[in-house]
């Protein structure tokens, strides 16, 4: 995703976003169709290699789309940044719903049933992507979007003569203005994915006995809904003080300690199902709140012509934090469990 976002920055300064999204959604649909077919109907070694390649391609396409969405959010400001962040998390809730359908229809602990549930899962995803493909022109046809993207900002970015130097985006200077918020977004997601899902899932057997698939589903739902609630709360305010963001980000480190205690301790308290679920909810709630609060604060610190690039930075540091957190978790904690 980060590779796709980095490549996408080259396309930011042109506001013909509609054909860009359509051009990305179509191959994404084809990749989603191809993935389960290669998994189920090719030799195991070939399926493993091809599926990894497909995952990389899916990530690149998703990264490029989120790059564009972040850029649009930067232009439109907090009134769009908050709903965008909520929309990102709502997609996880929707994924949980799709997963629930698969769990109800198939016994995923059976190999063939697991494959069938995977095909159903990707089929539902394809249906959602087709719906997105239909709705994207509606979104870009809205008067507010058209005015913001195709008129005011385009005029700023395409200025000529003496105005040209004034409206040139200087990436380093622009990043310096929002570096604090960018680091908060990065650290928030890095901390979350340092412990979730890796360590959080260590109690998967304790929620529903002998059904780790349902236990993982419940943990994912708790984190996703709490995260969505946190993003909703943070969206109600367009700007946050840096002291508040820094303090909150620092205090979230206590969740690393509590999660490690839950994963490693044999104490009845830390093994209590309600403690496990409350801790998972706290991870989601604080992640959604502080990430959205930092994202909401970015547009207010930039000039009008810098906001698109600011939105791009927002999307990149978000996914970089996720990837870095998972990588550190894999290297640091796998031997503990």
TrEMBL record:
Presence of keyword Transport: yes
Pfam families assigned: Nucleoside_tran (PF01733)
GO molecular function term, any single one: nucleoside transmembrane transporter activity
Membrane-spanning residues: 21-41, 53-76, 88-106, 118-140, 180-202, 214-231, 243-263, 269-290, 311-333
Secretion signal span: none
Record keywords, A-Z: Membrane, Transmembrane, Transmembrane helix, Transport
Subcellular location: Membrane
Keyword Transmembrane helix included in the entry's annotation: yes
Gene Ontology cellular-component annotations: plasma membrane
Main location (coarse class): membrane
Membrane topology: Multi-pass membrane protein
PANTHER family named among the record's database cross-references: EQUILIBRATIVE NUCLEOSIDE TRANSPORTER, EQUILIBRATIVE NUCLEOSIDE TRANSPORTER 4
Similarity comment: Belongs to the SLC29A/ENT transporter (TC 2.A.57) family.
UniProt protein name: Equilibrative nucleoside transporter
Native source organism of the sequence: Halteria grandinella
């Amino acid at each position: 995703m980060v590779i796709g976002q980095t490549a996408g920055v080259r396309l930011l300064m042109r506001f013909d976003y509609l054909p860009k999204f359509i051009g990305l959604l179509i191959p994404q649909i084809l990749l989603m169709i191809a993935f389960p077919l290669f998994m189920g109907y090719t030799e195991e070694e070939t399926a493993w290699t091809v599926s990894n390649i497909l995952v990389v391609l899916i990530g690149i396409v998703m990264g490029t789309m989120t790059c564009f969405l972040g850029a649009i959010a930067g232009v439109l400001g907090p009134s769009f940044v908050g709903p965008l962040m909520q929309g990102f998390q709502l997609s996880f809730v929707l994924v949980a719903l799709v997963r629930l359908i698969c769990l109800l229809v198939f016994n995923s602990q059976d190999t063939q049933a697991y494959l069938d549930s995977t095909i159903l899962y990707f089929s539902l995803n394809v249906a959602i992507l087709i719906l997105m493909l239909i709705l994207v022109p509606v979104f870009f046809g809205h008067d507010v979007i058209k005015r913001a993207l195709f008129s005011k900002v385009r005029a700023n970015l395409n200025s000529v003569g003496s105005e040209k130097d004034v409206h040139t985006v200087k990436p380093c200077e622009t990043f310096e203005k929002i570096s604090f918020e960018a680091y908060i977004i990065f650290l928030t997601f890095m901390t979350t994915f340092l412990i979730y899902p890796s360590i959080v899932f260590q109690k998967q057997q304790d929620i529903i006995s002998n059904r780790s698939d349902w236990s993982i589903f419940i943990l994912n739902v708790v984190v996703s809904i709490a995260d969505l609630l946190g993003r909703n709360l943070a969206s109600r305010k367009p700007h946050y003080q840096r002291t508040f963001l820094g303090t909150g980000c620092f205090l979230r480190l206590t969740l690393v300690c509590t999660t490690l205690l839950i994963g490693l301790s044999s104490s009845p308290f830390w093994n209590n199902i309600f403690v496990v679920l409350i801790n998972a909810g706290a991870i989601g709630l604080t992640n959604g709140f502080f990430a959205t609060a930092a994202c909401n604060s970015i547009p207010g610190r930039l000039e009008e012509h810098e906001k698109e690039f600011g939105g791009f930075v927002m999307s990149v540091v978000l996914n970089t934090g996720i990837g870095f957190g998972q990588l550190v978790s894999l290297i640091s904690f796998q031997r503990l469990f």
